Amino acid sequence: MGISTDTIKKVANVIYNELGIVVDSNNERILGSKISTFLLRKRITEQELLSKLTDRNFFKELISIITVNETYFFREKEHIDLLVKLIKKNRSVRARILSLPCSTGEEPLSILMACLEAGVKIDNIDIIGVDVDENAIAIAKDGVYSYRSVSKVPESLKAKYFVSINGAYKVREDLIRKVSYRVGNIFDKSFLRSLGMFDFIFCRNLLIYFDRVKREEALKNISLIHKTGGYLFISKTETLLGLNVPYKREFIDGIIVYKRL
């Protein structure tokens, strides 16, 4: 099913306004293919799609085919190792950690496992995982992962924190319950404020999808719930240089992090 250029551009505009994601000319064909798949699944026409774009519940369904949930446990592990080190330096303080976007849960669970392996008491950390995709959050709450997702997990940790089920790997229930998952949007300030304040924020592999305007807006939004002196972790392929945001770049153990001013 070929999707018209007009439909693709209208959907792309809604995606930008709601999610901040820029769909450039290079990605319009990919978006068109995703829209086509969505229409076949829903058994609706292009016209019906366009008429429903302002329906919040309908758009939530559309999000699941737009967002990218390709991730795995212990991705860019040096960030997680540094986080654990910073937490252990200040053992007397209960650390609140936000993973946004948390995708299907690999990142917050990796953080939790690393903390436990380093001897951090489970009651001394609060981990919140947030993603705009309801389907991703449902997978995170279920806690069942493919071999690819756990490929970077050492065998000793697989044996300790996972149960093998029909070729898949299920995280221990007590660990799943320790992470609080929420469906939410980084551009929704009232939602973010409802989460409370955080010491550490992981916002990796999200900013690359935004233009400068949306990057600054997103970062200013999360700064509202980031304690002064707290640390922000972004992907190695991302940078805050040149952006007007309340963060200062620092090098700790050779790793770039951003300190909340």
Automatic annotation (TrEMBL):
Keywords: Methyltransferase, Transferase. GO terms for biological process: methylation. The keyword Methyltransferase applies. It holds the Pfam family CheR. GO terms for molecular function: protein-glutamate O-methyltransferase activity. PROSITE patterns: CHER. Its EC number is 2.1.1.80. It comes from the Bacteria. CDD domains: AdoMet_MTases. The keyword Ion transport does not apply. It is an enzyme of class 2 (transferase). Residues 1-261 form the CheR-type methyltransferase domain. Signal peptide: none annotated. This is Chemotaxis protein methyltransferase CheR. It comes from Thermosulfidibacter takaii (strain DSM 17441 / JCM 13301 / NBRC 103674 / ABI70S6). The lineage of its organism: Bacteria, Pseudomonadati, Thermosulfidibacterota, Thermosulfidibacteria, Thermosulfidibacterales.
